[in-house]
From TrEMBL:
Domain Tr-type G: 1-60
The name this protein goes by in its record: Translation elongation factor 1-alpha
Pfam families, A to Z: GTP_EFTU
Keywords: Elongation factor, GTP-binding, Nucleotide-binding, Protein biosynthesis
Annotated gene: tef1
Keyword Protein biosynthesis recorded: yes
Length: 60
């Protein structure tokens, strides 16, 4: 669906972006969380408003 609307590069954020404005503009407005577990790890995916220059500071 993201690729059909020319937003293929946002395919991972697209899954978490629920607001119409987020999908149309390709930006994150509201924070979203997705948690899942594998046999070895517990993973939390976070989509939050921000700038790519600050991304390295968000990894914990």
């Amino acid at each position: 669906e993201a690729a059909e609307l020319g937003k293929g590069s946002f395919k991972y954020a697209w899954v978490l972006d629920k607001l119409k404005a987020e999908r149309e503009r390709g930006i994150t407005i509201d924070i979203a969380l997705w948690k899942f577990e594998t046999p070895k790890y517990m993973v939390t995916v976070i989509d939050a408003p921000g700038h790519r220059d600050f991304f390295k500071n968000m990894i914990t």
